[in-house]
Amino acid sequence: MIAAVFLLYVIVEIAALVIVGNAIGVAWTVLLFLAGSLVGLILMRSQWRRVMDGFRKATRGEGSPSLAVADGALVAAGSALMFVPGLVTSVLGLLLLIPPTRWALRPLAVLLAGKRAAAFAAGGDAFAGTVGYAARMRGNGEVIDGEIIVETPGTTEYVASNGKELVLEGEILDTDTPTRSRGPQY
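Now predict its structure.
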């Protein structure tokens, strides 16, 4: 299967080079290829910035995570196609890097990703604004540092979660006699 796809790619790219080379000449074809690569590099840089801004907005709850993921996938595919040699792949890469084409292909990208990706993105939309999530992200939640202690019934030894014996230190208080609270001393 992979060999057949690669063979098809080679045949399509060679046919495109021959057709374009016969139509505009070899020098213009090479110039067209180089210009497409340069425009692709410029577009990749600007569109990756735009995708990262979309991700940042989505994490702050200002944008849709599903749109950010779809844009990221399309820009990644376009960038990958720009690095594959050939006129056809460069044209396809440029089409995926141009925002209006991405806007038109976004629903198709979600459809091709399947119901699982859509459900994942919808889950991100649903939980992005919840209080617990936002509190954790802002650092406003209370963090309690602790350790899990496993008690074995019938023994008096306590073992910490890392497997080491736990040594308890402290003072034993008699619960029958009331203790005096030590409040502020003036």
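The mean pLDDT is 78.
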